[in-house]
Amino acid sequence: VTDAATPLIAAVLAVPLGTALLVVLMPAPAAADRLNLATSALTAALALALAVVALVAAPDVAARGSWYVLDTAGGAFLALVAVVGLASAAMSPFYLRHTGRSWFTARRSHAWYYAAFNLFWAALLALPLTDNLALAWLLIEATTAASALLVAFSGKRSALEAGWKYVVLTTLGLAVALLGIVVLFVAAGPDGSGFGRLDWQILAQHASALPEEATLVAFVLILVGLASKIGWAPVHNWLPDAHSEAPPPVSAMLSAALLPTVLLIAWRTKLALEPALGTTTVQELFIGFGLASLAVAIPFLWRSLPWKRLLAYSSLEHMGVLALGIGFGTPLAIAGVIVHVAGHGLAKALGFYTAIPLLRQDPSTAERAPRGVVRTSASTATAMSVSLLTLSGLPPSPLFVSEVMILLGGMDAGLIAVSSIAAVLLALGFLGLAHALLEGLLGEGRRASRPTRSAGAIAVLAGIAALALLGMTVAAYALPGSEIVEALMRSGA
Amino acid sequence: VGPVAISALVALAFGVMLVRRRSLATLLVAAQALLLGVAALSLAGDRPTEFAVAAVILLIRAVALPALLAFTRRRTPEPYLVVPATTVLVRLLVSAVVVLVAVTSIPPLGLGDRPAEHGAVALLCLGIAIVVMRRPALLQVLGILVAENGIYLLAISAPGGLPSVDRAWRPLRPGARRDCRHRLHPEDPRRGGLGGHRSPEGAP
Q1: What residues of chain B, 120 to 159, have a C-beta less than 8 Å from chain A?
Q2: B163/A187 CB distance under 8 A
Q3: Peptide bond preceding A234: is omega within 30 degrees of 0, i.e. cis?
Q4: What is the radius of gyration, based on Cα positions, of chain A?
Q5: CA-based radius of gyration for chain B
Q6: DSSP code of A278?
Q7: Is the ipTM of this complex over 0.90?
Q8: Chain B closest CA to A240's CA: distance in Å?
Q9: Which of A436, A408, A401, A437 is CA-nearest to residue A422?
Q10: Does B47 lie at the interface with A, CB-CB under 8 angstroms?
C-alpha cells in the first residue's frame, strides 16, 4: 500500500498547490471559479480515496512513508478536511459574487481568494498525514499564514483587526509550542537522526526512557501552544472575531477543519508521550481545557448574538467536548470523539454556508441576531434548523450519540463528577442553542425577500447534509468495539 | 552563550517593553538578534554548513527584518501621539514580576545550562507581555520577535545545538527513516535494525 499511497499523497497536495499558482493567472473571475471548482473536486476525490484506504486497513496502519503516516485517525480527519474543503470551494462563488472590491480589485479578488484558499487547504490536508511533531508545527504555522489573509479578505476595518488578532495570538501560542518542541527534542537525547526523533512512532516507542520532568514541561508547553490554535479556553480570544469576520466558506474551513485537525496533533502528542507522563497528568490537562471551554462558551450561547458569532462560540463548546473525550481516553469516549468530529464538521460548515444567503437577504444580521427567517426564506430557515439542531445535540443528531458516548466513556474511566458537570453544561448549551434557533426562525423579523441563488444552493446542501448526518447517527451505533476504535486508541504510534 | 550575553538579551527585551519610539524599539530587537547571531556563529566554529546557516539567520533577523520594519514604520507615520495603555512604571513592574515568577517556577528543561534556560523563558514571557501591553501593531510584531529570540537562544544552547536545515529533515528522505530506527533498535530487524546485538557500526 505504501508504494501506491506515496504518489497519491503527493497528488493530494500537488493539486491544491498547483491550483494556487495557476488560478492567479486566470484572466476573469468566472474562469477562476471554474478552475477552482474542477481542481477542488479532483483534490477531494483523491483525498477521499486515501481516507478509504486508511479506514479499510484498520486496525493496521495502511502506509508509512518518509514523512507521512496513513492511519485510521489520519484517514478520518483527511476525509473531513476533503469534504469541508470541497463544499467551501463550491460555496465560495456565491460569496464572491457580491463582495466587489476587497484587498484587491473586484476583477482580481476571485483569483487571490482562491490562491490563499488552496494554500490553506493544502496545509490542512497535509496535517493529518504528517508523521512528525516538528513538521506538524510547521504546517500549523502555514495554515495561519494562509488563513489570516482570508480572514481579513473583505478589507473592512473589523476584518483587518480580526485577522491581526488571529495572527498575533496564534503565532504567540505556536511560539510557546515551539519552545516545548525544542525541550522535547533535547529531552529525547542526541542520536544523530535530526528531527526524526520527533516522529510519533519513535516518540511513543521511547517515551518510557524520556526524563519525566523535562517531558512534562515540554508536553504542557506544546499543549498550551496548540490550545491557542484549537481555540480552547482560556486562550480562545481570536476565535469569535476571526470566525465572524472571515468569508463564510473560510469560517467553515476554520471551524470544521482547522480546529479539529490541530486537535488531532494534540491527540497524537498525548498518545506518544503518555507512557512517559502517566495517564493521570495528561488526562487532567485535557479535561481542564475541556471543562474551561464548555464553561466559557455556554453563557455566550444564551446571549442574542449574530449568527456567525453564535456558531463561533458553539465551536468553542464542541472543541471542549472533544478535549473531554480525548482526556477520558476510553474506547467508548474515543468512538464518541470521532463521531463528534465528523458530525460537528458537517453541521458547522452548513451553518456557516447558511450565512451567505442570510447576510444577502438581511445584511443587518452581521451585527445582530437573525429574527423571523422562516418568513424571509424557507430554504435558509431549513439549513439553519439542520445545522443548529445538530449542533445542539438534539436526537437523532449524531452529536447526541457522540456526547452520550463521551460522557459514558468518562464514567467508564471513573470520572463521574467530571462527566456529570459536563452533562449539565451540555444541557445548558442545548437550551441556549434551541432558544437561539426558535428566536431566529420565528421571532419578529423582516418579511419575505426575493430568493437568491445562494438560497437555492444552501437548500440542496442542507438536504445532503441532513442525510449524511442521519447516516452518521446510524453508523455511530456500530462504531464502539470495532477495529476502527482499536486503531484510534493508538493513532500514529 | 555566556551569562553576560544572556543578561544583555533580557535587558534589551525590557527596553522594547519600555521605550516609546517604534524606531528605537526596532533597533533594540535588531541588536538582540545581532547578539544571538554572533553567538551562533561563534558556536558553529569551523563547521561550514552550520556557520552558513547561522550567518543567513543573522542577516535575516538582524538586518532584513529590522529594515522591513523600519520601512513599514516610515510608510505608517503616527498622525498623532498614541497614548500608551499603561505607564512606563506599570509596564516595568508587571514585566519584572512576570519574568521573576516564570523564571523561578520553571523546572529544569534538560539543557544543563540554567542561565540559558532562564534567559529563554524570560525572553518568551517578555515577548508575550510586550504583545499584551503595547498597543501599536509594530511593537506587537517586535514582541513576537523577542519571544522567538527566546526560542532561538534555547535552540543554540541545546547540547550539540538543533540540527541545521540540511540535517534537520534528513529522516524525511527515503532510507533515512530506516537509518533512524536502525539506531534506535539495533537488535530488531523488524524495526530496521541489523539484528543480533551489534551496534550500527558493527562494534560489539
Answers
A1: 120, 124, 127-128, 131, 137, 140, 143-144, 147-148, 150-151, 154-155, 158-159
A2: no
A3: yes
A4: 21
A5: 21
A6: -
A7: no
A8: 18
A9: A408
A10: no
What separation in angstroms does the CA of A126 have from each of A202, A254, A339, B95? 20, 15, 21, 39
Contact between B170 and A168 using a beta-carbon 8 Å cutoff: no
Q: What is the DSSP letter of A97?
A: T
Residue whose C-alpha cell is 524520556: A210
pTM: 0.91
Q: Hey, are the CB atoms on B179 and A186 less than 8 Å from each other?
A: no
Asked if A154 and A247 count as a contact pair (C-beta separation under 8 A), the reply is yes
A–B: how many Cβ contacts below 8 A?
Answer: 102
Chain-chain contact of B147 with A175 (C-beta, under 8 angstroms): yes
Secondary structure (DSSP) of A206-261? HGGGS-HHHHHHHHHHHHHHHHHHHT-TTS-THHHHHHHHS-HHHHHIIIIIIHHH
Residue of A132, A164, A182, A228 to mutate, interface with B, max B Cβ within 10 Å: A182
DSSP state of B83: P
Q: Which has the closest alpha carbon to A328: A402, A432, A425, A431?
A: A402
Q: Shortest CB distance from B131 goes to which of A168, A182, A193?
A: A168
Per-residue pLDDT tens, chain A, 493 aa: give them: 667 788 999 999 999 999 999 999 998 999 999 999 999 999 999 999 999 999 998 888 878 888 899 999 999 999 999 999 999 999 999 999 887 666 777 778 899 999 999 999 999 999 999 999 999 999 999 999 999 999 999 889 999 999 999 999 999 999 999 999 999 998 887 665 677 889 998 898 888 889 988 999 999 999 999 999 999 999 999 999 999 999 999 999 999 999 999 999 999 999 999 989 988 999 999 999 999 999 999 999 999 999 999 999 999 999 999 999 999 999 999 999 999 999 999 999 999 999 999 998 888 888 999 998 998 889 999 999 999 999 999 999 999 999 999 999 999 999 999 999 999 999 999 999 999 999 998 887 666 566 677 788 899 999 999 999 999 999 999 999 899 998 888 765 5
B70 and chain A: CB distance < 8 Å anywhere? no
